[in-house]
Specification:
Number of domains: 1
Helix content: 40-55%
Number of strands: 0
Oligomer: single chain
Strand content: under 5%
Radius of gyration: 19 Å
Order of helices and strands: HHHHHHHHHHHHHH
């Protein structure tokens, strides 16, 4: 199982590392291809934190911390993928599962002595996915995440840190309309940070950062301040805008989250 896990996390998603692609080539909206990786990696680091001193959030910060995309109130230069990783690390079910899985973590502290200096992304899809010492933990994390990121449970979705269909509640369309309505107020920062618990908040901020980055690329002065929300979609074609607005017009999606 460990070899299968290593192959799945290292190759199947066709994402080899943390580098963000050019925004012109990236889709607008939550990146489903990162769901399983972010779930498995943050769960493993959360489960081993008592021995390594490295928490799930630390994995996100160290993986994406060198990518300074934009400085705005509260953003600290975080990229869209950084926020998506933080959403996974704050998933309420995953946090509880990490506590449960601590008992499967290797207790030999010598195994963790180099972690402070290592690339945690490479470590996670290499040694931790295929090493004999980690087989029990990695297998359990993989099996849990395979089910968790494909859940159809409509429970407390604000506590869920992963992508679902864009029109599901507390997903891209909720964030899309909220950011659109509040674009002139620091690109919707207050909407994202005041309406949701941490997992949904970080997914909202991830979409917001994608839109800001595209607005910046449209601007001749490198600032999105004077780019309207609708102007973004004149340059960047996306099914998200048509899909969200189409579902709203058809009564499938109700613009209610930011009015609650």
């Amino acid at each position: 199982m460990a070899t299968e896990l290593k192959t799945d996390l290292g190759e199947a998603a066709n994402i080899t590392g943390p580098e963000d692609e050019a925004w012109q080539k990236m889709p607008i909206g939550c990146e489903n291809g990162l769901n399983k990786k972010f779930c498995t990696f943050t769960l493993i680091y959360g489960s081993t934190s008592d021995f390594s001193g490295i928490k799930a959030k630390d994995f996100c910060d160290r993986t994406y911390g060198n990518k300074q995309e934009f400085m705005s109130r509260g953003d600290r230069g975080l990229t869209a993928r950084h926020y998506q990783c933080l959403a996974a690390a704050n998933d309420e079910s995953l946090v509880r599962k990490a506590q449960e899985f601590k008992k499967f973590s290797p207790k030999d502290v010598a195994l963790y002595k180099t972690w402070a200096k290592e690339d945690l992304w490479t470590l996670a899809q290499g040694e931790l996915a295929g090493g004999e010492d980690w087989e029990t933990l990695s297998d359990k994390a993989f099996n849990y995440c395979e089910a968790h990121v494909s859940t159809t449970d409509s429970g407390k979705l604000g506590a869920y840190g992963f992508c679902r269909h864009a029109t599901k509640r507390v997903q891209d369309c909720d964030f899309f309309f909220g950011i659109q309505d509040n674009w002139s107020n620091d690109y919707g920062w207050d909407f994202c940070t005041s309406k949701f618990s941490n997992p949904a908040k970080y997914r909202c901020l991830s979409l917001r950062m994608q839109l800001i980055s595209i607005a910046k690329s449209m601007s001749k002065i490198g600032s999105g301040k004077f780019i309207s929300f609708d102007e973004i979609f004149q340059k960047k074609k996306s099914t998200l805008k048509d899909g969200c607005e189409g579902n709203a017009l058809n009564g499938i999606f109700v613009r209610s989250i930011h009015n609650q």
